[in-house]
Amino acid sequence: MRSVKAIFSKQLRDMFKNRTVLIQFVVFPLVAFAFTEIVAKPNGSIPDSMFVTMFASIYAGVTVLTTTAGTIAEDRERKSLRFLIMAGMKPYQYMLGVGGVMIAASLLVAVVFGATGGFHGVNFVRFVVVLVLGSVASSLLGATLGIVSKNQQAAAAMAMPLGMILGFTPLLAMFSQTVKKLFCIFYTMQVDMLVSDFSADFTTPATVIIVNIAVFAALFAFAYNKKGLS
Question: How far apart are CA 138 and CA 136, in angstroms?
Fold first, then answer.
């Protein structure tokens, strides 16, 4: 636990020092709030929560993935990850430390999104839980990209396009059944489904998200053991 706490504390300090990273976690909630107040609420034909659910899915797919990838790629570039592995740091310990900060930040963001969307009670809890699960999946996927990247630039080159695809696919699926069918196996589609329609079945989408998390966790562990010392 000491190792996890050390990584968590280091990552938390680094995040607060890096304004660019902080802005990434703030921008989507702010945009959702602005659209909700300026566009949705004055217009009776637009649900108050529409922009919240839209930008929440984008946040889960883009922000957490790219930030985690950049963070871990930086550790590799500076050789600090190599030293941690040589000191006996396990994949789950490192991921709990780095990912813990991302999930804690995502929990706060989810609460802000939920309050902006006017969710209450069970719906609020469901919204927060689903968005955090999506953030866990993104964090693990981003961590894998960061591990296999030689530096931050390489990580950004992979993470940003993938994040844009995963984040904006639910929006495209609103206009294309083909896109919806092709990408239904990915977690962002299921996150969007669960936060957009609280009457929808929870079990199947949640299972898809959890399967994504399991697959990404296995990929990260494999990449950590293969690439961490390189």
Answer: 5
Residue 172 has what pLDDT? 86
| Percentage, residues of the chain above pLDDT 90 | 44
| Predicted local distance difference test score (pLDDT) of residue 216 | 95
SS3 sequence of 5-44 = HHHHHHHHHHHHHCHHHHHHHHHHHHHHHHHHHHHHCCCC
CA distances from 187 to 110, 123, 132, 138, 171 (A): 16, 19, 12, 9, 14
Which pLDDT score, from 0 to 100, does residue 131 have?
Answer: 94
| Tokens 């706490």 sit on residue | 5
Mean predicted confidence (pLDDT) in 52-74: 90
**Alpha-carbon distance 227 to 225, whole Å?**
6
Q: How far apart are CA 43 and CA 52, in angstroms?
A: 15
| Phi, psi dihedrals of residue 187, rounded to the nearest 5° | -65, -35
Q: How far is CA 88 from the centre of its chain?
A: 27
* Residue position matching structure tokens 């079945």: 201
Nearest one of 24, 99, 101 to 55, comparing CA atoms: 24
> What do you get for the CA distance between the two ends of the chain, in Å?
26
**Residue ranges per structural domain of the chain:** 2-227
Q: Angle CA(149)–CA(151)–CA(152) in degrees, nearest 5?
A: 100
Tell me the pTM.
0.88
148-197 residue pLDDT tens = 888 888 898 999 999 999 989 988 888 888 888 888 899 999 999 998 88
On whether the CB atoms of residues 129 and 106 are closer than 8 A, the answer is no
User: 46 is written with which tokens?
Assistant: 């637009």
